[in-house]
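task queued by scheduler; priority normal; single chain, no ligands, no partner chains; default sampling; output format set to structure tokens
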Amino acid sequence: MNQLKTILLLGALSALLVTIGGLIGGGALYVFLAIAVLMNVGSYFYSDKIVLRMSRARLIEREQAPALFSMVEELAHAAGLPMPRVAVVPDPTPNAFATGRNPANAVVAVTEGLMRITSPRELRGVIAHELAHVKHRDTLVATIAAAVATAITFIANIVQWSAVFGGVARDDDGDGGFGALLMALLAPIGATMIQMGISRSREFMADEFAARLTRDPDGLADALSRLQSHGRELLRRGARPMEPVTTSLAIVNPLAGLRGRGAGLANLFSTHPPIEERIRRLRAMQV
């Protein structure tokens, strides 16, 4: 179901691109799509180096963390994946992320805080979740979504400026310019919401894959609960959160999960589903 949801959301993103591209006409759509693709292809091929540098992660060898290496190796083999590189992030916030353009270039990174507070059972669940992102090539999916969303934003900016300076054609009633401007204003917001929806659906898929890989959905559910509570406590104490780009890749986002007024709107623009919903689904699983 989540795979189907991803396909539908990518389709909606493409349809939005075609619609707003039609406001300019000619070959402009292809020009801006090409620019977006070039920008994101560069990010795709160098994403591992960029993310590791921004998060201050350091690649480690087996002798530096033999238990962690053995756990990653065992789960990667069970998932039918090559052994990824392993990195440790000097961050007290308990978290983990995976990066790399394909399984052969994958990196699984864990924070020092994660290794400090989780049990081996919980850590297995977290690592299995990150390996799921590698297995599903979620970096590629995210790159495609980002390329289309970037193109939409580029085109929307051109349409906005064209409308302001009278460059957008009007229909017989004179409403064409206003309609184009309204579309140009709303399209980037819609693209962002769809892009975030794709990200959230991939998180649910990774949770399910990890639960089946470890045959222990409760282990991952316990880990998610522990990671969220410890992350929020550290933030309340004034700890510096992970870099925003890394937070979006991480298994949990300690800055998300708002409650009360504004929570629903905030979740629409969140890269992660609410932790409570992820835990509920995991608890309900039978493997």
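post-processing summary
- The chain has a mean pLDDT of 76.
- The chain has one domain: 2-284.
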